[in-house]
Amino acid sequence: MTPHPPDTGPPPPLLTRRNALFLDLDGTLLELASTPDAVVVPQDLSALLASLASALGGALAIVTGRALETVDALLRPWTVIGAGLHGAEYRLPGMRTIDRLPLLPVRNIVEQLRSRFASVPGVLVEDKEHSVALHYRLAPERREECESAMLAVTCQRTDLRLMHGHCVIEALPAAADKGSAILRLLQRAPFEFRVPVFLGDDVTDEEAFPVVSGCGGMSVRVGASSPRATHILSSPSDVLRWLRASLTALEAAYGKASEP
Ligand SMILES: O=P(O)(O)OC[C@H]1O[C@H](O[C@H]2O[C@H](CO)[C@@H](O)[C@H](O)[C@H]2O)[C@H](O)[C@@H](O)[C@@H]1O
Predict the structure, then answer these.
(1) Ligand 1 centre from 3 Cα, in Å?
(2) b/e per residue, 133-152, with b = 16+ CB within 10 A?
(3) Are residues 151 and 249 in the same domain?
(4) What is this model's ipTM?
(5) At which of 129, 145, 173 does a domain end?
(6) I want to staple 191 with a disulfide (CB 3.0 to 4.6 A). Which of 20, 115, 156, 230 is the partner?
């Protein structure tokens, strides 16, 4: 599929049973909020994802920068399948446990950043145990300061890489990226042999778009347009509308599925 120039990408067609669906969380399924803990989860989201997963024969995964345990808590009672920490951890289909890339110590970085920004209102250090995010959404004027501080505390760490996101700079395992995470999931049932569809809104998602397009799939940028994406949806509300419409179409075509 040919990527479209900015602002001209079409909305994606509705899902079919040939698709494997990969969804980013923040900014894609959830509206961005002032802090990571302040997100509001739509009331029907957990049930919608569970029904869609069933309709797709289980081929639905969340691919997120959050830790999977955090996503479980947000999307309860649905138990998430997919990749967390930008691909540093996985819960594979049929498993309850979470597999992680070799553990990288980030406590020292967390402590240095907390001490550096202790008296700076609006800057927040998110400790994700295997990665660290430094948020400045509530103090956008601190962006450069945050970037320099993160660079200073990670410059010796070749096992980590820095990633800029929405009002955040993150240090994450160098080996983790969402494109590889999607490829890994695509090698396993029930994802294998399906056409991938990935929805995301951020820099880390941009990395995965060419991977998905390269597999003949659809890459859907949420919010701002992207020359790397094949399709566009304008907001998380639009995403939810599209997911609900896809579920209705799947159930009309194939009947209501039982749990995968
Ligand atoms: O890959 P994602 O699911 O999009 O996760 C990316 C990061 O999302 C979270 O931060 C972002 O959302 C917050 C809540 O809306 C917002 O306050 C923040 O400014 C955004 O950057 C999360 O806290 C990070 O750990 C994720 O990596």
Answers:
(1) 26
(2) bbbbbebeebeebbeebbee
(3) no
(4) 0.98
(5) 173
(6) 20
